[in-house]
Amino acid sequence: MVIDDSSAMRLILGRIMRSLGFDVVEAPNGAEAIARLQSGAMPDIALVDWNMPVMDGLAFVNAVRREEKWRQITLMMVTTESEQSQIVRALAAGAHEYVIKPFTPDAIADKLALLGVLAY
Amino acid sequence: MRILIVDDSRAMRLIVARTLRLAGYEEHELIEAVDGRHALDVVAEEPPDLVLCDWNMPQMSGLELLTALRGAGSSIPFGFVTSEASPQMRVTALQAGAMFLIAKPFTAQDFQDALDPVLA
Amino acid sequence: MPYIPSADDLEVITREVWTSFLDGDPAGLIATSSEMPADKITGCVHLTGAYTGSIMLQCSPPAARQAAAALFSIAPENVTQSEVVDAIGEIANMVGGNVKSMLPGPSALSLPSVVQGLLSVPGAQVVREVQLSWHAQPLFVSLWQQAS
Known about the structure:
A: 5-stranded parallel β-sheet; B: alpha/beta; Rossmann fold
């Protein structure tokens, strides 16, 4: 699942994830992503933008971690340099990993390999 | 060299292509995209050497496209061709990673001034 | 009192667009009052923010076809409706974008709309208007402001 308010970024991340063998579901913010999860979507991993309207990345991580049934979803934050200091909060809230923009497709693949979710 | 022209107006894409030829860039390959999504497809398939992009487009603005490209690690030379050319606009464009901003209406000279340093 | 572009400013901007892309002859566009037909083509962009209002461009259907013909480098009789919409929309975008640069900011510029006939914007009043003629066809450019 790719969660970002920028349709351009969703397209780019979606393409990267598909090239790594994933099927991709998109959401423009945390609230829509939660709605998708509630209607049955069960992604192996969610790439989560930090700054989004309605429900931001941190709030999304908190919401996901509150539910037992979503425990196995790996959460990876996608963040900018200036938000790096806030990543500690996301990790404390239950995110597993983060990648900083500008990222390369290899950087994403490396992080996914670290997490053990790469669909080889 | 490949130059990608992104504008939802076919009239403007024609004018940009025409002006590129008038400005002496007729030996370069010109490709067109009707919107940001289409532009991302082109960039993913065969990255151009330069992107000339409108600012205001439906679904995805030029700024959103550029921001996402830079966020995904792309250093493709990128310039805006826009009807709004205030100093603040130029600053926003440059900060987002654009190399120049050409104001509409423009002349062949405007194109030469902006593109010569990039395509030399 | 913030500066609001004058009718002369609207004319200068329209001329720049015209001589750049539509008619290299500066004498092709003249300032003259005339009558705008009921079946006029209207292109419009809206501003929202520090300045809230609209910039409207109206012209006769033959002028709209001429404009599209010039932009697309085709004969006026071969111009399609979608080409007229594209051309008038882009012209409204260019005139509007340049007018926006002279208005108090920051504001957001909308995508253009093009209709045949009168476009009414509820609550808006015209604050500037220039009446021009292009090859004997009427062309009006107006700036509207939303009443606060």
